[in-house]
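Thread amino acids onto this structure.
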């Protein structure tokens, strides 16, 4: 059964046309939307993380709050830039948020997307090696350490004069949440990175763009990436089922308001552009009546291959409208899509 979630970019602006005019608005509405989504039968609430931007930059307080207000829905990120993270402190925050939610965290991490500032990770106190031009190697090093400490194995030498009595042996990060290590995802934007993700035993969060441009439609490139990820997972011999998510902007056109906002996206096409000097392929948006959406999405190879579909929602239009988009999809599109 395909899982349906939403992905919020968490934008805010003081524009009079925005329903989210402050960081407080975005944070509180993000919680309210997760509660509404759970009531509608949506399977996941995911949030984008960007630093130095009017977006959600510190995910764990939000994830913990959503976990406290909900009981079933998966809660995740898409994605946390690991260049900025202290792996041990992150493991503490993640463990606490996961325990509050009852083990529902699905953390998407990665090297991150283009930054708002120049080398912002250095301002957070992280210095990559001289050869590591964009911090990608450092992100993977931070990730390896993060995954290692999530295992729950002790590694810290106890003090001979502790404030409180210690358990025997080496100490681990606390609080520890069993099972969280198996719910870490990597945001991959290339074929090679998808295979590396499988080797690390992480789930695949296939990016909204791919750094390959071969002339193929985006969905075919993405389906190929998913196939290579799953094949590599099997070759390595990991236990458990590898999960894959894809994100799409999808808007069922149910009324005049939907058509006014998104009717122009009905003719959307893939785009090719330069990202850091590399040609990349960007996926199109979908906007149509529900029956047409079912046919269009059924022809999207990557949507059909993934087990989790994340709908990118226009959070600045407010909780009520975003809940309307989710309800329209869950009631009028998802049932037919899941039956295929």
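Threaded sequence (340 positions):
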């Amino acid at each position: 059964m395909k899982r349906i979630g939403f992905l919020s970019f968490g934008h805010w602006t003081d524009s009079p046309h925005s329903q989210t005019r402050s960081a407080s608005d975005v944070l509180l509405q993000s919680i309210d939307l997760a509660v509404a989504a759970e009531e509608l039968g949506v399977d996941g609430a995911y949030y984008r993380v960007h630093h130095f931007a009017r977006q959600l930059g510190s995910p764990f307080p939000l994830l913990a709050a959503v976990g406290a207000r909900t009981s079933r829905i998966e809660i995740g990120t898409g994605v946390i830039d690991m260049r900025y993270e202290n792996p041990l402190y992150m493991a503490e925050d993640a463990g606490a948020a996961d325990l509050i939610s009852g083990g529902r965290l699905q953390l998407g991490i990665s090297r991150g997307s283009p930054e708002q500032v120049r080398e912002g990770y250095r301002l957070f106190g992280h210095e990559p090696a001289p050869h590591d031009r964009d911090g990608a190697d450092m992100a993977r090093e931070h990730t390896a350490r993060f995954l290692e400490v999530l295992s729950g194995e002790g590694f810290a030498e106890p003090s001979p004069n502790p404030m409180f009595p210690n358990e025997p042996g080496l100490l681990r990060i606390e609080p520890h949440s069993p099972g969280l290590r198996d719910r870490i995802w990597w945001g991959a934007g290339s074929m090679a990175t998808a295979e590396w993700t499988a080797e690390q035993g992480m789930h695949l969060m296939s990016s909204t763009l791919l750094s390959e441009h071969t002339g193929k439609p985006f969905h075919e490139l993405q389906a190929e990436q998913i196939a290579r990820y799953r094949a590599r997972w099997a070759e390595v011999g990991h236990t458990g089922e590898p999960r894959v998510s894809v994100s799409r902007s999808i808007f069922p056109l149910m009324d005049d308001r939907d058509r006014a906002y998104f009717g122009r996206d009905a003719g959307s096409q893939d785009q090719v552009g330069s990202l850091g000097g590399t040609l990349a392929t960007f996926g199109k948006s979908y906007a149509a009546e529900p029956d047409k959406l079912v046919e269009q999405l059924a022809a999207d190879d990557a949507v059909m291959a993934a087990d989790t579909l994340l709908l990118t929602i226009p959070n600045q239009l407010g909780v009520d409208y975003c809940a309307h988009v989710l309800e329209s999809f869950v009631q009028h599109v998802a049932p037919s899509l899941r039956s295929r």
